[in-house]
Write the structure tokens for this entry.
Amino acid sequence: MIRFDNVSKSYPKQSRPALRDVSLEIEKGEFVFLVGSSGSGKSTFLRLLLREERASQGQVHVLGKDLARLSNWKVPQMRRQLGTVFQDFRLLPNKTVAENVAFAQEVIGKPRGEIRKAVPQVLDLVGLGGKEDRMPGELSGGEQQRVAIARAFVNRPMLLIADEPTGNLDPQTSVGIMKLLDRINRTGTTVVMATHDQNIVDQMRKRVIELEKGRLVRDQARGVYGYQH
Amino acid sequence: MRAQFVLSEIGVGLRRNLTMTFAVIVSVALSLALFGGALLMREQVSTMKDYWYDKVNVSIFLCNKADAATAAKCAKGAVTGQQKEQIEADLRKMDIVESVQHESADQAFKHYKEQYGDTAIASVVTPDQMQESFRVKLKDPEKYKVVATAFAGRDGVESVQDQRNILQNLFDLMNGMNIAALGVMGLMLIIALMLIVNTVRVSAFSRRRETGIMRLVGASSFYIQMPFIMEAAFAGLLGGGVACVLLLVGRYFLIDHGIALAEKMQLVNFIGWDAVLAKLPLVIAIGLLMPAVAAFVALRKYLKV
């Protein structure tokens, strides 16, 4: 599903590389937490997965494709198999909940009949049945994040990438979001989630990958947030 | 691609950017109107050249009695019958000469009367003041010099005149105006292109949320860029339409009505409506394509994959 072979990434104008010689493999259907302090390279890791950046050295394979060799015009096709969720939701404020979710299908040219069927289905899945016509501004943060997850999942991606999805939410709402991501994971979708939320990581007991100053310092099955002594 | 979706995106974009869109339409319209006008002007010059060069001759004016006293070249007196025969024979021997016509003083007087009619000057002119002349028609009007060197300064010849000179000034003026129009067009075109690039940039910036999401869910760059390109093309199309109207109205007022050159300059055959209509598809096509290409180029910079 995902394989990093000795991946380094440095940005121009920055002396310290954002990622240094990272090698790891994530299998299909796994749920992986990506932890580390700010500036540890989590965001760069996710950007490499999305092919928003290319590795400076080493190889990144996502869904069986070597992203370095993937030509620009094939990138959209690759991204259709990924879903992405962010801390700041990134919803379109002037579209309703249903329109926001449908947008992800419209812009890749899905037929309308399919959209009409898929949108209510996925909104039910995330627990927003009946709120199709609300505007994002009328929803709570947790609900907005559910819309974002619905949008990320509506095209049934193989891989869901979440960048601190609970970063803006209170602990109780976060638990709800985590249950949802867990449910999505159980449908067979691989989930990679970057987070600072210790409670969540400790509770879920999933695989934990820790980065520190761009290096992979821990890769632990059923791990917790901090080091165990 | 879902047409309705794209169309609604274009509508939203154009309305959000109304002032910029308006500026694009106006600048595209002006530059294209100048472009079309310059094309038509060139065509006008070339039809006039065709028409007039066919009619104009090289004139060899011969000395008359009055000239013998006043003009230095006629110091040896009025032209003699022998000299005339010699000149005519030499003219007919030249390869470049198509035809030679002799105009007597009486004929010249008659033409003069026809041309100037009842004006004050016409009433004091008498036939013996008019010059006899040979009207020489050349196969190639550009070869005037050959005739001029052969006959200027010969006994009995007062002067050799190329009637094209009279027209040349007019054509030079029209060509000058043409170049000026093209220059202004170039300037307007640059302004139009810069406006388009800027409009597209503003448009892309104001919709970066949408385009960001589109990128993430895997919309193709074509799909992401299409609304912006169509927006520019649509504004350009409107500009092209306005330019067409300007050209049609321009011809109407300049030639048929208003300034009505057709009435005032009856000797000139002006280009017809068909010539104007023939230019319109080109104007529309450029109006459509130029902004689209400019938008495409601008987007390559502002909307990366």
